[in-house]
Amino acid sequence: MGSGVTTIVNVRVFTGDGLSELSTVVIGGEVIVSVTADAGGEGDGDVVVDGGGGTLMPGLIDSHVHLFGAGDLERASTWGVTTMLDMGAPSMELIAGLRAVPDAPTIRTAGLPASAPGGMQTTRMGFARDSVVTGPGDAERFVAARVADGVDYIKIIAEDPAAMGAAALDGPTIDALVIAAHTNRLRAYAHVTTVAAAQLAATAWVDVLTHVALDAGLPAALVTEVAAKGLVSVPTLVMMRGVAEKAGGASGDLVTHRGVVDFAHAVASVTALHEAGVAVLVGTDSNSAPGSPFGIAHGESLHDELGLLVEAGLSPVEALRGATVLPARMFDLRDRGAVTPGLRADLVLVEGDPTVDIAATRAIRGVWIAGARVR
Ligand SMILES: [Zn+2]
Q1: CATH code, 365
Q2: C-alpha 287 to ligand 1 mean position (Å)
Q3: Which residues make up the environment of ion ligand 1, defined by Cβ < 5 Å?
Q4: Per its UniProt record, what InterPro entries does this chain match (predicted)?
Q5: What is the pLDDT at residue 122?
Q6: Distance of alpha carbon 272 from alpha carbon 103, whole angstroms
Q7: Rounded CA gap, 336 and 299, in Å?
Q8: Burial track 344-364 (b if 16+ CB lie within 10 A, e otherwise)
Q9: Helices 92-99 & 70-78, crossing angle to 10 degrees?
């Protein structure tokens, strides 16, 4: 819990469009109290922090993680990640335990993901049998069970049926899951790492496509459909790169992709989605799980993802928006995502100007979670 008054002087604030003039930001308790032009003085407050002319950003939001222990949270907050959207957790007890950790990132969770009978989630990744959805008629049961668990949204594993057969959810089942989620006022996030899966998910009108196809670039018609339907992309390029490297390029043995895995397809698709006006948000798929396709470090990987998104064509400001204001607005995190009076004091102080050089986000000098300094 934040206590007392902290005054951060001599900082430029990330406004969502760029940087402010030199400013003074006052934190009282858990919230931002004021943001004013720097008066040039030393500042008042129980604690005064000299920002050194650096940049004060909202706490970073990672829109795709998996959590397994308190160490994941500590690594995240050390790197400025203050909100984490879990995209598939083995148990709600685990999440409840992590939510009880003090001064740690906020956690939202999908709980168990919806997956096909014979899918990797239950056969290899350790998710409970309740994760399995047997067909369209089973969708309401699955979503009702997640609602009873208290999840924040529904995660759907979409795969290429031509590659996976019965180990892939079919189109009618994905449709039924999305309808059941929306009937319960929950968003639907689809795991899509192939063009075929992305098409099934877009047809079903999911809210969010997470990952991006590795087997081919998204066809122009599908990019247009994603944009027209207002779907959101969380490409997790850092995971896509890891999977592609592990698979050894086009000769990979990934059954999910019929052997065709190329990171260049993922990058090209992100470029196309961005150019079509699709909101591209920052997610890493960070995990410390045994059985995951590729280990990704919590926290630091978000900075890798920002860099990869800039390489794919986002401006640094656009990439930063994808880790701050955009997920806050799109995922009902309206108490955060901007350095604005009244919002939660989740803040990251960095040296330099990340709106010019995205790598500057790594030069972290301070992190606050709900007003409590954690770094
Ligand atoms: Zn994931």
Answers
A1: 2.30.40.10
A2: 8
A3: 87, 285
A4: Amidohydro-rel (IPR006680), Metal-dep_hydrolase_composite (IPR011059), Metal_Hydrolase (IPR032466), Metallo-dep_Hydrolase (IPR051781)
A5: 85
A6: 39
A7: 18
A8: bbbbbbbbbbbbeebebbbeb
A9: 50
Position 252 scores a pLDDT of 46
Cα(67) to centroid of ligand 1, in Å?
Answer: 10
Q: 203: CA distance to ligand 1 center in Å?
A: 21
Q: Give the three-class secondary structure for 39.
A: coil
Strand partners, 234: 210
Domain check: are 295 and 346 in the same one? no
Domain that holds residue 343: 5-57+336-373
Number of domains making up the chain: 2
Determine contact, residues 106/82, Cβ cutoff 8 Å: yes
Which residues, given as ranges, of the chain have pLDDT below 70?
A: 1-3, 248-259, 291
316 Cα: distance to centroid of ligand 1 (angstroms): 24
Using the mean position of ligand 1's atoms as its centre, give its distance from the Cα of residue 126 in Å: 13
The enclosing H or E element of 319 equals helix 316-321
Residue 251 Cα to ligand 1 midpoint, Å, equals: 23
How far, in Å, is the centroid of ligand 1 from the Cα of 341?
34
Give kind and range of the element (H or E) at residue 64: strand 60-65
In the 8-state DSSP scheme, what is residue 113? P
Cα–Cα dist 42/48, whole Å: 8
* Total number of residues shown for the chain: 375
The token duo for 189 is 């996030």
CATH no. for residue 308?
A: 3.20.20.140
Both tokens of residue 282? 């920052």
pLDDT score, position 249? 52
Q: How far is the CA of 339 from the centre of ligand 1 (A)?
A: 29
pLDDT at position 228 is 98
Ligand 1 center–CA 124 separation, angstroms? 14
Question: In angstroms, what is the span from residue 119 Cα to ligand 1's centroid?
Answer: 14
